[in-house]
Amino acid sequence: xxxxxxxxxxxxxxxxxxxxxxxxxxxxxxxxxxxxxxxxxxxxxxxxxxxxxxxxxxxxxxxxxxxxxxxxxxxxxxxxxxxxxxxxxxxxxxxxxxxxxxxxxxxxxxxxxxxxxxxxxxxxxxxxxxxxxxxxxxxxxxxxxxxxxxxxxxxxxxxxxxxxxxxxxxxxxxxxxxxxxxxxxxxxxxxxxxxxxxxxxxxxxxxxxxxxxxxxxxxxxxxxxxxxxxxxxxxxxxxxxxxxxxxxxxxxxxxxxxxxxxxxxxxxxxxxxxxxxxxxxxxxxxxxxxx
Length: 291
What we know:
Elements: H1 2-5, H2 8-42, E1 59-67, H3 75-85, E2 90-96, H4 98-104, H5 108-116, E3 119-123, H6 133-140, H7 143-150, E4 155-159, E5 163-165, E6 181-183, E7 187-191, H8 192-199, H9 211-219, H10 230-236, E8 237-238, E9 248-250, H11 257-260, H12 263-272, H13 276-286
Parallel strand pairs: 1-2, 1-4, 2-3, 8-9
Antiparallel strand pairs: 4-7, 5-9, 6-7
């Protein structure tokens, strides 16, 4: 009667259930030992994935910082892109105003990076005004800024809202750590100890040279200074001198014809670094450039 009620094919499937349960129990008890045996015997590679990085995985001596007090709409996208492109161990800081910080904090990925210790959000320190160029120059040439905001970092990647690094670049930010300074004021990598060495014995006069020129000229005179040569500058960041595959771009209020004036050249940039449109699509439209 039982054989008629349950055809042969169902009885075979029914036997698989207890066998499968036994296999699962054995795997639960002896799985780690079996995996270790296979890895040791056959020299199999192991893969570790960490979905919850701890704060200790980020290096205090490497800091990438965005300074922008205006609540531009693209700041969140820019921050998330830069975090993805810069080597994993670099910490990030965003220094802004109450308005710009409130805008950025609406992003869940930004909140996750902040909770993990990857990203720090803070207001511009009291006594500084980062809403205009001269205020920025004064802040970036003041020892208190580096002591309160940058320490304990030794390398500082400083970038502004009109700069970006390209995902397709075959260069890493870590490739440039041999230099004390490379880049321009809006997108630069600087050795903090060398900056502090200058600021200990010199003070910038207000309304004088821009902070990047003022600092880099004096850093270049320090003993054992390592400044990036001019031939390497365009490889790091293109502003007004053309390079086929730079690590990043700085797109100022004006678009130099030497870089952006030719339509075919612009198409090369968009094919190589399409993310430049995150920061400059509206500026391109205002200047009526065909993309």
